Amino acid sequence: MSTITKPGNETGADSAVEPAAAFDADSTSAAAPVPMTEEQKFFFDLKGWILVPSVLSETEIEEMKAEAYAAVKPDYQGKNSDLQQGYQGMLANLLDHPAVVGILNEILTEPPFVGDDHYGFRCENSFLMVREPGWESTVKGTGLPHVVRPPQQANAMRYQVQGGKIFAGLTRVVWELEEVRAGYGGTSFLSGSHKAHFNYGGPDRYRPNISESPWEESLYAAMEDYSCPPGSMLVFTESLIHAANDWTNPDNRRCAVFNCYNSIWAQWHRLNLDHEVIDKMPPKRQSLFRGAWQLGGDGNRTYSADNRSV
Ligand SMILES: O=C(O)CCC(=O)C(=O)O
Ligand SMILES: [Fe+2]
After folding, report:
1. Fewer Cβ close by (within 10 Å): the C or N end of the chain?
2. pLDDT tens across 66-76, in order?
3. Among all ligands shown, which has an atom nearest to the Cα of 171?
4. Nearest ligand 1 atom, CA 185
């Protein structure tokens, strides 16, 4: 795997968000979004992913890590124990962190749908992931380079640019709460593949992964990953070929929160989140979980028990 991208150059590090003072739960949905820079837009369009290093403060990192490690403990066997969610406690502040909102306002909505009391995009999936040194990825799982749908064909989840405007389709934001070193097991990406016009070589043009491609080896060899300090944020379009990798860093576990967002008019994941959890969130954050529709009345801006995505 090539490991070219370092925090501090083309990934927009010059405009990295200053670590904020520790915030209490619920405060983020009131804070002003951090606009996406032109540099970030350029590299997101070029590569399909960007890294925003050092977004969180030390205190935030420590508190969030404590929550994540406590959450995965019950069935933690030194193996991957995914799937606990990041919808509660301090971790819920990541859902609408000002650094996320600024970027998603640019790449996942249109200005007329952005408001003071609601978001112009939806959240539809969140999971925590803790990986012990020695954790191995599997090609039956996300270790096989994959996409939401093959990028070279039109579909409702795909990455698009038209009229000078990005619309990223299904979009993932990953928060790395421990250090990640290139080549030691962060998520890897086939940069540019979100805009591919040709299939990656497998026998089935609808297959959303590279299995049975005669070019598998060169596809793996072309993938890149990143180094980042704890508290950094990655954003990628799920139309980009990407993969999980063996966590070989001997010095620390991988501890990451994976949050997935979509257009207010489209849905990929089932939400799998109880109303009781959403009901405790500030109203603006609740709007991330409203139903996926728009037309009628004043439009669809507010979450309620009978207007929730399923
Ligand atoms: O586990 C990883 O590093 C990648 C996860 C993944 O495939 C995804 O978030 O879509
Ligand atoms: Fe994936």
Report:
1. C
2. 999 988 865 45
3. 1
4. 3
pTM for this predicted structure: 0.90
Can you give the residue range of the structural domain that contains 182? 2-16+33-264
Residue that has been written with the tokens 């405009």 in this structure: 15
Domain count, the chain: 1
Ligand 1 binding residues, C-beta < 6 A: 142, 172, 187, 242, 244, 258
Best residue for ligand 1 mutational test, from 79, 125, 148, 174 (most atoms within 8 Å of Cβ):
174
pLDDT at residue 24 is higher than 80 = no
Instruction: Indicate whether 128 belongs to any domain.
Output: yes
We report the CATH number of the domain holding residue 67 as 2.60.120.620
Apex 71 CA angle, 142 and 237, nearest 5: 35
